[in-house]
Design a protein that fits this description.
With 440 residues, the chain is of the alpha+beta class. Helices cover 30% and strands 21% of the residues. Bound molecules: acetyl coenzyme *A and zinc ion. Zinc ion binds next to loops.
Length: 440
Amino acid sequence: MGSLDAPISAENGTAPAAGHGKSPLTDGGMRPPPSDSVPEYELVKRRRSSVLPLEVGTRVMCRWRDGKYHPVKVIERRRVHGCGPNDYEYYVHYTEFNRRLDEWVKLDQLDLESVEAVVDEKVEEKGASGLKMTRHQKRKIDETHVEGHEELDAASLREHEEFTKVKNIATIELGRYEIETWYFSPFPSEYNDCLKLFFCEFCLNFMKRKEQLQRHMKKCDLKHPPGDEIYRSGTLSMFEVDGKKNKVYGQNLCYLAKLFLDHKTLYYDVDLFLFYVLCECDERGCHMVGYFSKEKHSEESYNLACILTLPPYQRKGYGKFLIAFSYELSKKEGKVGTPERPLSDLGLLSYRGYWTRVLLDILKKHKGNISIKELSDMTAIKAEDILTTLQSLELIQYRKGQHVICADPKVLDRHLKAAGRGGLDVDVSKLIWTPYKEQS
Ligand code: ACO
Ligand code: ZN
């Protein structure tokens, strides 16, 4: 993962048109002319209905929210009413876009004349096995994954991957926001029949019904994440939550986060993690904006495991704030750090933007030569990440067996402009924190 499999702007409705428009029936010369005895519309109708219901794995064009047709692959299908071949809805993946845009579509959104004859074998095979699983079996796999009690064999893992292709929870209510989810999250089995979940924005307990949440809110004492407030600047606060001391909160946060994280599995033990929860505070309490998690001890020098800005707060600089915060913690630990891989498309963009800005700001101000090691010491960014960032900006040359940074001020300015906004600043003087120590 980490590759841009979709134009990022697709979410803003600005994805390029998929070049659709030419109907196979009108593109001339490719088919024998229709028989004189059967009218054209009748042939079209027959051809359309002969492909129904569509198989899992079918590739076809689908009308998206921008009103244009885009290529999709059918991931799953379900009956909606009746039992005829037309009575299905399809869960589709837009092959040009990220999986977060996968959705259930109605038959009339699909252009059946564009159905490709060859069904994707791999998907069909996996899809069929996915369909055969009972809810209980699927649930078992997901619970195993969350709790990490058992290792999955390769076949179960494939089944799991197949099952997680279809989003289970469509929307959540959290604080004053109703948020559309992006991906599957393995909620406990009693939530299998829910399309919407209601979260308490403070303790992150989730419920099936609004009335349950309203009752809960009358009793819930929390007005901020459990744990220590380690940073406050203006209305922004950061809380450190120990997964061992606040297990349920940690698990709830993981369930919630998985709705927006694709390639992260939740089969870790929350005990081993610290959660840094960013909040906007007002007189009603501290409202979660985003968070990152961090292993208490990382062999691989990871200083961040998962990062999320909740969708209503995205593109406001909070992501870069969280990234900057993770490096400030590393500096206090006297270590270099790097995010856990794989990075998502948005994660990679955010990190690239952050690394570029931080490194180029230093290069601009610095007089004389500077090495990658020195840059790493100053920023707590791992040397490999510095090298790949500067290489991708073509600021590195290899001379006499050494990497040399070549930084023309004009080129630096151009790159800095392209790197986007700086994000919200972390005021280090407001950070009151000591590195984690195991309590005996
Ligand atoms: N379209 C285009 N560019 C985007 C988009 C988007 N939708 N979202 C973020 N970016 C890029 C931009 O370059 C942006 O900088 P700019 O606004 O100055 O141009 C930069 O990323 C970061 O913007 P921020 O506002 O600082 O970040 P945000 O608060 O939106 O959070 C994050 C970024 C955390 C990656 C968010 O998109 C998110 O939560 N995504 C879902 C979860 C996820 O993918 N997390 C990363 C997984 S990898 C890991 O956990 C190690
Ligand atoms: Zn609560």
